[in-house]
Write a structure and sequence with these properties.
Layout lengths: L3 E4 L9 H16 L3 E6 L9 H14 L5 E5 L4 H14 L2 E4 L3 H13 L28 E4 L6 E6 L3 E6 L7 E3 L7 H11 L4 E5 L6 H11 L5 E5 L2 E2 L15 H6 L4 H9 L13 H7 L10 E2 L2 H14 L2 H13 L11 H8 L6 H12 L6 H7 L2 H15 L6 H15 L4 H12 L7 H8 L1 H12 L1
Parallel strand pairs: 1-2, 2-3, 9-10, 11-12
Antiparallel strand pairs: 4-5, 5-8, 6-7
Helix pairs in contact: 1-9, 5-6, 8-10, 11-12, 11-13, 15-17, 15-19, 16-18
Length: 465
C-alpha cells in the first residue's frame, strides 16, 4: 500500500500555524513512507472563500517549503462528481430528501430541549418500512440527508488518541447537500478522500466529532476507511485558546517578523511531537525521526521565546548569501539600498549570531549603508572633547594605513591604543559611536573593514566639522 496523506485547508482566511503544523505532519508522514502528499482546497463555503485566500494558502505552503505531490485540487471543480455520488446514495436508500422548513427544525429543537433531550432532527422525512411519508410541500427545495445507522457504535483506532467509540444514537441524519444540491463539508471530504485514495487522514482534533459521521458515510458507499490521526490543539503560553483575530497565528505574520521557514517548521514540529531531547534539527532529520506514535494527545503551548531561540540557531548555520537575500527586503522597506555599500552577505555574516530574527538583523545592518549619528545621550557619554581629539588622531593614522582589511585594522588599533597609553574601550566605544551611531557592534576592526576606508574616514571627519 502506498501511503497517501492530504492537507485540505479552507480558503476562508489566512493560513494559520495550526494548519501549517497539520500540513507538516501530513507531509512528513508521506515523505517518511515514500508516499504521496496531496493538497486539496476545500472551497465550497461560497460566502467566505475567496481567490485571495486561496493564493495566501499556496504562497504560504511554498514559503515554508511543504511541496505537494498532487494537486491543488479544488472542491468547486468536482461538483459533478459529488452530485453523481449523491444520486447513487439516493437510489441506494442511504440518503433521502428532507423538506423540513427552518421553523419546523427550530420547533423540534425547542421541544427536545423542553424534554431535557439533545436537540436534533426527528427523522420525520426518513423513509422506513411501513412508514407513510407526507407529499412534498410545494415550493420547498429539499436538503439531502444521510441515513445514519440507528444502533451500534462507530469505532476507530485513532493514531494519536487511541481507540474512540461513538454510539450511533448520538448522531443524527446529517445534511449532506443543501437546498439546490450544493454538497456539505462532511460529504465532500468523504468523496474526496475516497477518490484520492487517502490512506491516512492527519488533521486537528477539532475534527474528531466529524470522524464518526464520515466513517458511516464511507461505509455506506462501500469505500475503504483511512486511518485517522487527530492532532492536539496549539494553545497560547497562558493555556488559552489561540484566536485568529487577537493572536498572531498566520504564517504571514511570522514571515513578516523575520522568522526563517525552516525554523518555524522546526518549532511547530516540537509542538506535540518529540524525539528525545532534540530541539534543533533539519527537516530531513524530522522526516527520518517522525512517527505518529510519538505525537502527544495533549495540547501544546506556543512559546515565542523558544521559537526565537530555534530561529536563532537556524540563522547561525544559514548560508550568508541566502540570509542576505531574505534580509534585503527589510532594508528596502525603510529606504535603504543594500547594493550601495558593502556586500550584504558579508554584513549578515558579521551580525547573524547577535540576533534572533531577520528584522533585527536588518536593523543592526543599517549603519553599514546609512550613517546614523550617535544620539545626544550616546554622544554625551562617549564623544566628549577628549574622545573627539583622540578620534581625530586615529583618523590620521587610518588614512596612512597601507592595507585596509581586518588584520591590518586590528594591528593598527592595538598599536594606537598602546601609543596613547589607554585601554581598548577608550578608543573602541567612541569609535563605534562615531562611525556606527551605536556601541553595540561586532568586532570593530571587522566593521571598519566592511565599511571601507573612504566611508570610515568620511564619518570620522564629520566629528571635526
Amino acid at each position: 500500500m502506498t501511503v497517501r496523506t492530504r492537507f485540505a485547508p479552507s480558503p476562508t482566511g489566512l493560513l494559520h500555524i495550526g494548519g501549517v503544523r497539520t500540513a507538516l505532519f501530513s507531509w512528513a508522514y508521506a515523505r517518511k513512507h515514500a508516499g504521496v502528499f496531496v493538497l486539496r482546497i476545500e472551497d465550497t463555503d461560497l460566502e467566505r472563500s475567496t481567490p485571495e485566500s486561496v493564493q495566501v494558502i499556496l504562497d504560504g505552503m511554498e514559503w515554508v517549503g511543504l511541496a505537494h505531490d498532487e494537486g491543488p485540487f479544488y472542491q468547486m471543480q468536482r461538483m459533478d462528481r459529488y452530485k453523481e455520488v449523491l444520486e447513487q446514495m439516493l437510489a441506494a436508500g442511504t440518503a433521502y430528501y428532507c423538506y423540513c422548513s427552518k421553523e419546523e427544525l427550530e420547533a423540534m429543537r425547542a421541544e427536545a430541549e423542553a424534554r431535557g433531550e439533545k436537540p436534533r432532527y426527528d427523522r420525520r422525512w426518513r423513509p422506513e418500512a411501513g412508514k407513510t411519508l407526507p407529499p412534498p410541500p410545494a415550493g420547498v427545495e429539499p436538503v439531502i440527508r444521510f441515513r445514519n445507522p440507528l444502533d451500534g457504535v462507530v469505532a476507530w483506532n485513532d493514531q494519536v488518541k487511541g481507540r474512540i467509540e461513538i454510539a450511533n444514537t448520538e448522531l443524527d441524519d446529517l445534511i449532506i447537500a443543501r437546498p439546490g444540491g450544493v454538497p456539505t463539508y462532511n460529504f465532500c471530504v468523504v468523496v474526496d478522500d475516497w477518490d484520492m485514495g487517502i490512506t491516512h487522514v492527519i488533521r486537528g482534533d477539532d475534527h474528531v466529532n466529524n470522524t464518526p459521521r464520515q466513517i458511516n458515510i464511507l461505509a455506506a458507499l462501500g469505500a475503504p476507511l483511512p486511518l485517522y490521526a487527530h492532532l492536539p490543539m496549539i494553545l497560547n503560553a497562558d493555556g488559552s485558546k489561540m484566536s485568529k483575530r487577537k493572536d498572531r497565528v498566520s504564517v504571514v505574520d511570522y514571515q513578516r517578523q523575520g522568522i526563517l521557514p525552516e525554523a518555524l517548521l522546526n518549532y511547530l514540529a516540537r509542538l506535540g511531537w518529540g524525539h528525545g531531547d532534540d530541539e534543533f534539527f533539519t527537516m530531513a532529520q524530522f522526516v527520518e525521526w517522525f512517527d505518529l506514535a510519538n505525537v502527544s494527545p495533549s495540547p501544546s503551548r506556543f512559546d515565542r521565546e523558544k521559537m526565537l531561540w530555534i530561529n536563532q540557531q537556524h540563522m547561525k548555520v544559514a548560508d550568508n548569501q541566502r540570509l542576505a537575500e531574505l534580509t534585503a527586503p527589510f532594508l528596502v522597506e525603510v529606504g535603504i539600498d543594500p547594493t550601495q555599500g558593502p556586500a550584504l552577505a558579508e554584513v549578515v555574516g558579521l551580525l547573524k549570531e547577535r540576533v534572533t530574527n531577520l528584522v533585527d538583523l536588518a536593523q543592526q545592518a543599517h549603519y553599514f549603508y546609512r550613517h546614523e549619528p550617535a544620539s545626544a545621550e550616546l554622544a554625551a557619554q562617549h564623544l566628549g572633547d577628549e574622545a573627539r581629539a583622540r578620534l581625530g588622531r586615529f583618523r590620521t593614522a587610518l588614512s596612512a594605513l597601507p592595507a585596509w582589511d581586518g588584520t591590518s585594522l586590528s594591528a593598527e588599533i592595538k598599536r594606537f591604543v598602546a601609543e596613547e597609553g589607554i585601554k581598548m574601550p577608550l578608543l573602541g566605544m567612541p569609535l563605534r559611536a562615531a562611525v556606527c551611531g551605536t556601541t553595540q557592534t561586532p568586532s570593530v576592526d571587522l566593521v571598519l573593514a566592511q565599511l571601507g576606508r573612504e566611508e570610515v574616514l568620511q564619518r570620522l571627519g564629520k566629528l571635526a566639522g
